[in-house]
Amino acid sequence: MADLSIAKPAPETARGPNLFSMLWRDKLAFVAAVVLLLIVLFALFGPSLLGDLATKQNLRGRNFPPFSFERGWEFFLGGDSLGRPMLARMIVAAHSTILIAAGTVLSAMVVGAGLGLVAGYMGKTTSQVIMRLADVIMSFPSLLIAVVVLYVLGPSIPNMILVLAITRIPIYLRTTRAEVLEVRERMFVQAATVMGASHARIILRHILPVVAPTLVTIATLDFAFVMLAESSLSFLGIGVQPPDITWGLMVAQGRPYLNTAWWLAFWPGLMIVITALSLNLLSNWMRVALDPAQRWRLETRKTKNV
Amino acid sequence: MSEPLLSVKNLSVDFHTARGTVHAVKNVSWSISRGETLAILGESGSGKSVSANAVMNLLDIPPAEIVSGEIIYEGKDLLKVDYETHRALNGKKIAMIFQDPLGHLNPVYTVGWQIVEMMTAHGRPADMARARALELIKRVGIPEPEKAMGKYPHQFSGGQRQRLMIAMALMLKPDILIADEPTTALDVTIQAEVLALLKELQAETGMALVLITHDLGVVAEIADRVVVMNKGEIVEAGLTREVYHNPKHAYTRKLIDAAPGKGEIKLLDPAAPLLLDAKKLNKTYGSFAALKDVSLTLARGQSLAVVGESGSGKSTLARTLLRLEEADSGEALWKGRDLITMGRSELLGVRRQIQMVFQDPTQSLNPRMSVYQLIAEGWDIHKLMPDKSKRRAKVIELLEQVGLSAEHVDRYPHQFSGGQRQRIAIARALALEPELIICDEAVSALDVSIQAQVIALLDDLRQRLGISFLFIAHDLGVVRDFADTVIVMKSGEIVERGPTAQIFEAPQHPYTQRLLAANLDPDPDVQAERRASLTHG
């Protein structure tokens, strides 16, 4: 109905500043990005700066209640069951948590999406083999694989990433394949074939960009799931080993004390929620920002009718 | 003249979109009396459907807002009555049929159930509804009406589905039937049948018919009066014959002039060297034969049209030649080399020489690529224009060649209108300097005036650059203007072939004759004459 050809010429000289201004336009996403940046900084520098503080036991400060500066700033969020400062422990825990969650989600996404693209694009036989492989993984209880593998290989962070990633691969694989099956029938893919585009080009240039937003959305949802899955492994003693610590493990360890010292489980739980929420907000923004047909929402001043 | 049955007075509707307010219709007035046929003619975006949707209370409010106006039916303003009153009128007194009958029939219920529901929803007993449904299904010409009641929508052809929609609309003997592009999705011969059916039914029941269309031929065939709309305003209104013969407004004149099928018929240059020589191509899908021994030749600079109705195998032919589908047997010699058995690397070279323009540019252009990326992609694939600094200038040159300009380079497909998008698709095809362009219904999704421009553009390219065209179409008018040779296909076979003049002036095969007869002429007098000769002859 509207004459879309009159859409204002978007000055797209430099991509960087443009992305930043688009981020600034969406205030929620901007806050989310700042929070995530902060968490990444914690993860990078936390252990070296606060490592000692976070492991120093102080039995007089056992289950010290939060919101008081009586024992110094580090006890502002309270102390844990061995009298270690919660604040310092949470900052240090960011390191292993983010490492495991990001490592798992990224490797599961890359492998899953890669196999999914191949399964969706190639012929029936290849597709069948890949899909049945995924079925095998899915039919195993994921915790059981984890227990067996970690028992054999020994608990360590790389092994945990490996185990968790394997259990998450089918989700990306199935979603990608389903989308590819639909996208590859679209006209512009045929148009590319007619122009002589190679398979790799069609998959990477034409199909992947259409599938990517869905994958990113799943990945952000998966992030929180992996943080909790890791905690159950740690709870069983085959995950992160003390003195290493993660948010998930802190939640698990704090659970028996919920009646008497709620802050033991609450603060790390809150961090998981904040991280997952920020990632969701940011991925939502990214979906809009990367879609040329939607991008204008972030470029123009919003009118009152939106 | 008696009191009109329905009148729309000074209707203005705005759409509030994120990009600002769009005035969809401005001060539109029309009225219709019993037994009359009114056509609302306009191109896409002209707002021709908006007033009818307002009558049916189908506008989404918001984003739509009715700014002013009234719609008078039986002394009541339909814009002011409450929802329940309106619902009682909808379907019962005023019924509507749509362009896409498959989209408007529920796939999980039998058509009989859906037609009966139309009546039971308005509080009639089920047995009476069933009897009436059966009578109507018989009346609209569906074979074996008893059986048809128990079938599902997908078991019918497009034309039959539209007949069923008509039956459904007529269940409660409405006073007014609004038909929104009822025949646009149908083949010409079926279009003619459906229009004839509508006319007969109108004569029997005396209902008023509001026909929304973009097709001058449909208007000429069926309408008593016509209202021409452009950009939300009525630019001209009057009796169909008068509007056609003495158009007063410049836009109406433009529309009439743009109607295809009036230009000089082109002649083939007999000395041109042969480019493509296909012999006995066969393709089957299961037991269905899509191509049966199809042979054709194409010379340099020739424009060969393949016409046929849906399911005739014309698209399969194009896809087979492009190796999007593998032929079962036969050969297609491209400059002496067989396309069908060619290896991958050799095929890559040929892909540069044969380009394709698809029917729907909205779908054939990757929505995530800018115009520059779209056009330059072919150079990446074929490793042409290695000097990337020159590419931009070349893209701009190509855009100018198809009637776009330099400022469009960095935009994305969704920022263009349908006609402009098709130009981008053509520019993309031209970027590789092809020798043959295959157009699969390349203009059928476009408005007539834009269609004429694109055809003129293609013709210009043919003459200036000597490109050959394989032009697949169902619209005979367009074919007559553009092609020098025509192939007529039916159920996978070529039934007739020859120079355009011969096919149009002296068709031999009965199917070609039928196709030509069903093709609607924009001139109401010509149509009236044809009708007369059909009923008497």
Describe the protein's architecture and organization:
The complex is a heterodimer of chains A (306) and B (537). By secondary structure, chain A is mainly alpha-helical. Chain A has one domain: MetI-like (MetI-like fold). Helix content of chain A is 71%, strand content 0%. In chain A, helix 6 runs antiparallel to helix 8. Chain B has a domain of 248 residues: 3-Layer(aba) Sandwich (Rossmann fold). The two termini of chain B are 36 Å apart. The relative contact order of chain B is 0.10. At the A-B interface, helix 7 and helix 8 of A face strand 1, strand 2, helix 13, strand 16 and helix 15 of B.
Question: Mean of the pLDDT scores of chain A?
Answer: 81
Task: Work out the helicity level of chain B.
Answer: 25-40%
The helix content of chain A, as a percent range, equals over 70%
Query: Could you say which structural class the secondary elements and strand pairing of chain A correspond to?
Result: mainly alpha
State the secondary-structure class of chain B.
Answer: alpha/beta
- Unreliable runs of chain A, pLDDT <50, ≥5 residues? 1-17, 302-306
InterPro entries (chain A): BP-dependent_transpt_permease (IPR050366), MetI-like (IPR000515), MetI-like_sf (IPR035906), OppC_N (IPR025966)
Protein name (chain A): ABC transporter permease
Pfam families (chain A): BPD_transp_1 (PF00528), OppC_N (PF12911)
Keywords (chain A): Cell membrane, Membrane, Peptide transport, Protein transport, Transmembrane, Transmembrane helix, Transport
